[in-house]
């Protein structure tokens, strides 16, 4: 454990993820290697990458954080995943992190490689970006996270691929199997990182990993804390629905509030659904969602103004001079954290 501070169609294919997304340092793309074949002894040997936090498998949460990679390689036995990946396996299976890293690295071509384990519930895209930026800003061979106690986390890191290949080759030369093949099985990761020049990025949350059942319970509790639950739910829903779209959540929440106040409470979820449907039909991105939300919010405002005029007329006041009334079945706010 690292110290902690406070389904659509599964992509089970073996091809690389389609097309590079966000770029790495200096405008260059990056690849990702996810190590997911550990024995999980402290969890009784269960399938750790398949354990769920916030309704999503730990492996799928990590894959979402690496969505910008041109190629994502998962070193483990193939399984259904939310995103397409390339599968690899160390030789022998269960040979440890160095053997797994070497197996995954063979399927990459980018200059920079993000290397992560599959048990990081709070790893996110911005953290991957920070690692890549830290690597670009230095002459180091790698940039890794440190946990709350200042300990290095070499399996939450971005590396220069040539440096990894150089040191892996040196280790392989020093330790060959009887038949002459390179044998990295059982070697600790520090044999590699000890030969690299590293820069460090402190992050007590993103470096948190799930090694025990207590760790898993902590992760599941944290995502339901005030200030986290809505973002976690939206991320989980987007993954489940196969949506890769960033929208202004506040715009949609404000629209839901306006519809509830100006029309009726059930209008809130129906209106946000219609906005999403309209944006989808327009084949637009976040801008289409924002434009549809603006139109719907203006409509809700007109409804509220008519209700205010009607209330003012009943009270003997001139139309347009009364205060908008809240719809009879509306609530003060539809936002869960309001």
Automatic annotation (TrEMBL):
Residues 1-29, 310-338 are annotated as: Disordered. Keywords: Cytoplasm, GTP-binding, Magnesium, Metal-binding, Molybdenum cofactor biosynthesis, Nucleotide-binding, Transferase. Residues 226-307 form the DUF6457 domain. Gene3D superfamilies: Spore Coat Polysaccharide Biosynthesis Protein SpsA, Chain A (3.90.550.10). The keyword Cytoplasm applies. InterPro entries: DUF6457, MobA-like_NTP_Trfase, Molybde_CF_guanTrfase, Nucleotide-diphossugar_trans. The lineage of its organism: Bacteria, Bacillati, Actinomycetota, Actinomycetes, Kitasatosporales. GO terms for molecular function: transferase activity. It comes from Streptomyces hyderabadensis. Residues 310-321 have a biased composition (Low complexity). Residues 32-176 form the MobA-like NTP transferase domain. PANTHER family: MOLYBDENUM COFACTOR GUANYLYLTRANSFERASE. This is NTP transferase domain-containing protein. It comes from the Bacteria.
């Amino acid at each position: 454990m690292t110290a902690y501070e406070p389904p659509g169609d599964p992509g089970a294919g073996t091809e690389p993820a389609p097309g590079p997304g966000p770029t790495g340092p200096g405008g260059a793309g990056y690849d990702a290697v996810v190590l997911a074949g550990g024995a999980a002894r402290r969890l009784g040997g269960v399938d750790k990458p398949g354990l769920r936090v916030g309704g999503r498998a730990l492996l799928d949460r990590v894959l979402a954080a690496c969505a910008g990679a041109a190629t994502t390689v998962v070193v483990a036995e193939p399984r259904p995943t939310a995103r397409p990946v390339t599968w690899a396996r160390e030789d022998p299976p269960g040979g440890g992190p160095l053997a797994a890293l070497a197996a995954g690295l063979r399927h990459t071509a980018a200059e920079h490689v993000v290397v992560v384990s599959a048990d990081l519930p709070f790893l996110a895209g911005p953290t991957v970006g920070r690692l890549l930026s830290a690597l670009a800003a230095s002459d180091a061979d790698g940039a890794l996270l440190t946990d709350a106690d200042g300990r290095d986390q070499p399996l939450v890191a971005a590396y220069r691929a040539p440096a990894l290949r150089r040191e892996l080759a040196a280790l392989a030369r020093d330790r060959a199997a009887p038949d002459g093949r390179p044998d990295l099985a059982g070697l600790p990761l520090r044999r590699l990182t000890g030969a690299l020049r590293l820069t460090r990025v402190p992050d007590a949350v993103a470096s948190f990993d799930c090694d025990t059942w207590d760790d898993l319970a902590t992760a599941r509790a944290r995502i339901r804390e005030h200030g986290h639950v809505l973002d976690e739910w939206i991320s989980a829903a987007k993954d489940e629905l196969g949506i890769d779209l960033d929208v202004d959540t506040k715009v949609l929440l404000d629209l839901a509030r306006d519809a509830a106040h100006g029309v009726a409470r059930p209008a809130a979820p129906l209106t946000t659904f219609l906005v999403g449907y309209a944006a989808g039909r327009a084949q637009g991105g976040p801008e289409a969602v924002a434009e549809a939300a603006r139109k719907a919010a203006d409509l809700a405002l007109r409804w509220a103004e008519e209700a205010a005029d009607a209330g003012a007329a009943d009270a003997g006041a001139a139309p347009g001079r009364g205060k908008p009334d809240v719809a009879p079945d509306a609530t003060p706010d539809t936002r869960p954290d309001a």
